[in-house]
Amino acid sequence: MPQNEYIEQHIKKHGRRLDHEERKRKREAREGHRVAKDAQNLKGWRAKQFAKKRYSEKASMKKKIKAHQESKVKGDPTPKEDNGEALPTYLLDRDVNNSAKAISSSIKQKRLEKADKFSVPLPKVKGISEEEMFKVIKTGKSKSKSWKRMITKHTFVGEGFTRRPVKMERIIRPSALRQKKANVTHPELGVTVFLPILGVKKNPQSPMYTQLGVLTKGTIIEVNVSELGLVTAGGKVVWGKYAQVTNEPDRDGCVNAVLLV
Amino acid sequence: MATLIPPPSKKQRKEAQNVRDVDIIPDNLPNVLIKFQASDTGDSVGGSIRVPGGITEKQLEDLLNNLRGETEEPVPYTFALLNTDGDKTSQVEIRDNLYTSVLKPGLKTTEDFMTLVYTPRAVFKVRPVTRSNAAIAGHGSTILCASFAPNDSGRVCTGAGDSTARIWDCDTSTPFRTLSGHSNWVLCVSYSPCGTMIATGSMDNTVRLWDAESGKPIGGSLTGHSKWITSITWEPLHLVKEGDKPRLASSSKDGTIKVWDSSTRNCIYTMSGHTNSVSCVKWSGSNIIYSVSHDKTIRVWDMKAGGKCMQVLKSHSHWVNHLSISTEYVLRRGGFDYNSTRSTAKKSSPEELRKNALAQYEKVAKVGGSINERIVTASDDFTMFLWEPLKSNKPICRMTGHQKLVNFVSFSPDGRYIVSCAFDNSAKIWDGLRGTFIGTFRGHVAPVYQCAWSADSRLLVTCSKDTTLKVWDVRTRKLSVDLPGHSDEVYAVDWSLDGKRVASGGKDKMLRLWSR
After folding, report:
1. For residues B386-419, b (16+ Cβ closer than 10 Å) or e, as one string?
2. Residue B146 phi/psi, 5° resolution?
3. Domain containing A137: what range?
4. Are residues B248 and B384 located together in one domain of the fold?
5. Which of A104, A157, A183, B374 to pair with B153, CA 20 to 30 A apart?
6. Quick one: B186 and B278 in the same domain?
7. Are residues A219 and A137 in the same domain?
8. Closest partner CB to B2 (pick from A82, A91, A199)
9. Please, which residues 216-245 of chain B have a Cβ atom closer than 8 Å to chain A?
10. Tell me: the pLDDT tens digits for B294-317?
11. How many helices (H) and strands (E) does chain A have?
12. What segment(s) does the record annotate as region Disordered (chain A) (predicted)?
């Protein structure tokens, strides 16, 4: 018990005075008399305060009485306010999972707001120098030529990609660093799904990296969302959607992305 | 890097390389011996006949019509081979010609004697709807249910979340009447089989009756239920006594079924027994009410004995969601047929309608010479059961195959097929007599909510959460037409009883009418 609650402490220890209940009842019974006296006698600021309190009490009481009377009235009540949540009988007892729904409606909403069409979650990324991106590979009998490069970042190469002949291949995309799938998060639903990558749309570092399919932080990739079951307004299944890579794949060994909705 | 379409998988490539079957009937096919047998009575026609082995369905039809002496007005038929395998008999449908469907798969050789079971098809043909010819705004909220009038394809009634039901004029694509009186969502609407009344059930626990022509309320609300109304069914027209109006039964979330007299507007019987929400109720042609409930049971109530519970059918292991009777389409249609309109409907007297209703009912209900009424129930346990409750309290068949809960089942108008709509994005079609699996309709990308049959049992339309309607051809089991147009989930769909129109409504508040 806090230190200042000495009254409560006293009551707890010794109980109330014997006529407490009776005094309380009497005081409550005289409440009306006190209010009437105050209403007549109070002056100035206190009178104003009193009147304000009295007015709000009376208004709320009137409202209450009216609501009470209305509930007892027979006949056609006014229709319930519609909140757009009406459901057919077969869906009433089910907790309808609206995730795909939420996605598709949020897509529609986004389309309406064309203004921020090009805004992405990661607007700026740190530049990567060519030295960091490419490793020089020395070739030739005496390893004197150095026109070959190997990419040190993770890449996406399309399905059915065949390397060029070794003699011609200037840029090597190591097969150990190739990625086919990405962990894609839906920003509003907070769900993460492992989806196949369809292509690299844009690498902010350089158009050449876009062409090579390099996956670095901030890269826009296209992912296959067909298993999420999204539909367009025309009833067609949404198939590919863009996502932005949020991590540095070469540090984590996986690609994490956030869906652009 | 531009978007690359993934190349075909290995499986697809292999399939493409396979030799395609070519449907050519060999020239040197010998004649075969066949016999025709009626599917309903089991009588055989014309004894055994020698026909070419590659005889087509059309030729079989002509032959049969000749044998039956119906050359003036030929009746279309479907044929199926009665295949006896040990002690099991099954029917193999003949499509196109005898060679491709029987001889080529090796079911029978040309030496064998074949029994062909014939079934008459509807004499009229419904053509698939292909376009949306109207999107009518009017409802202020989600459309929850829709139903066409039995006597007229020009009137459709919808119930919505804005506490009103509306009647629409489909000929002019305009709102016709607004039925306002409920104080909460209108969950179910149902036309009486005589076509003069509409019953609406609502979230406000009441049922209301309306005049179908003027849209005026018939008296006040029918109160008694303590929770919302889940479904409404009317008494079949041929059971209605001389000079009476059909009664109606309503089921509610509170676990009871109430039968109301539509003329005195009193509750005649209250049938309680279900321990949980009653999800669907249907009044059958043999004066029995079937009800299914979330308490996993199906109850059979005898209306001849004043609503006594005859049977409790237990087999489902989860909520039972929906129920269909093999004759429900013909009961809903009352005494009207596919070419009745508003004007012709007015001319026919109640006695005449009742007589027609009985004749039509018996035509569909009779199998092998006696009345046979089957019901199918769909459940949350992903299965369906086919029952014949008047004969046995054990199911005929358990129909498994869906991978999510089955929301809706419906017998085809002729009772030969069952279609089931499930939340696994597919609809499946089953044999209506034995419950064997026939095929799957895949194409929707979201749960399929409901479906509606065309009156000739050749087509059906499904509505889904993926905002589309799809028309399916029952014969080929393929998608016939895809109907996008709604901008949100489609909750209700109905096909008019003359096959001209389809009406659908859903979350986008628009009633859409579809036609050819």
Report:
1. bbebbeeeebbbebebbeebbbbbbbbbbbbbbb
2. -145, 145
3. 130-259
4. yes
5. B374
6. yes
7. yes
8. A199
9. 228, 230-231
10. 999 999 999 998 889 999 999 999
11. 9, 10
12. 1-84
pLDDT single digits (tens) A45-63: 999 999 999 999 999 999 9
Higher local confidence (pLDDT), A131 or B24: A131
Q: Domain end: B100, B120, B140, which one?
A: B120
User: What is the phi/psi pair of residue A197, to 5°?
Assistant: -85, 140
Same domain, B91 and B199: no
Residue carrying structure tokens 């992305």: A257
Structure tokens at B196: 């003069």
Do residues B497 and B111 make contact, with C-beta atoms less than 8 angstroms apart? no
Same domain, B492 and B419: yes
Minimal CA separation from A182 to chain B, in Å: 16
Residues B108 and B147 in one domain: no
| Residue-number span of the structural domain to which B83 is assigned | 27-120
Neighbour tally for B427: CB within 10 Å: 28
Shared domain for A139 and A240, answered yes or no, is yes
Q: Is residue A142 part of a domain?
A: yes
Query: How far lies A31's CA from each of A21, A47, A64, A156, B348, in Å?
Result: 15, 17, 22, 83, 78
Determine the Cα angle at B337 with ends B290 and B453, to 5°: 55
Instruction: Give, as one character, the DSSP assignment of residue B237.
Output: G
Quote the number of domains for chain B.
2
Phi, psi of B511 (to 5 degrees): -90, 125
Confidence of residue A102 (pLDDT cuts 50, 70, 90): low
Q: Supply the pLDDT for residue A183.
A: 94
Rounded to an integer, what distance in angstroms lies between the CA atom of residue B386 and that of residue B377?
Answer: 7
Q: Exposure string (b/e) for B313-331, b if CB count within 10 Å is 16 or more?
A: bebbeebbbbbbbbbbbbb
| Chain A residues within 8 A of B145 when measuring between CB atoms | 88
When pLDDT is cut at 50, 70 and 90, the band that residue A79 belongs to is low
Domain end (from A72, A94, A112): A72
pLDDT (average), residues A25-41: 94
The phi and psi torsions of B299 (rounded to 5 degrees) equal -115, 145
Output the pLDDT for position A174.
93
DSSP assignment string, B81-134: EEEEETTEEEEEE--SBHIIIIITTTSS-TTSEEEEEEEEPPSS-PPPP-EEEE
Interchain pair A89, B187: CB under 8 A: yes
* B46 contact A CB<8A: no
Q: Do B397 and B385 form a contact (C-beta atoms < 8 A)?
A: yes
CB distance B73 to B90 below 8 Å:
no
Tokens representing B225 are: 């239920």
- Per the document, the length of chain B is 516
Mean pLDDT, range B321-345, rounded to an integer? 85
Average pLDDT rounded to a whole number, residues B191-220: 91
* pTM greater than 0.80: no
**Angle made by CA atoms B456, B210, B185, in degrees to the nearest 5:** 85
At A113 the pLDDT is: 63
Number of folded domains that form chain A: 2
* B446 interfaces chain A, CB cutoff of 8 Å: yes
CA of B141, closest CA in chain A: separation in Å?
6
Residue among B273, B272, B274, B324 at smallest CA distance from B294: B274
Residue B343 has pLDDT above 70, yes or no: yes
Q: Is residue A48 part of a domain?
A: yes
Segments of B172-226 assigned E as strands:
174-180, 186-191, 197-202, 207-211, 217-222
- Output the CA–CA distances (angstroms, integers) from residue A157 to A167, A178, A207, in the order listed: 20, 7, 15
Per-residue pLDDT band for A101 (boundaries 50, 70, 90) equals low
Cα–Cα nearest to B191, from B220, B164, B159, B143: B159
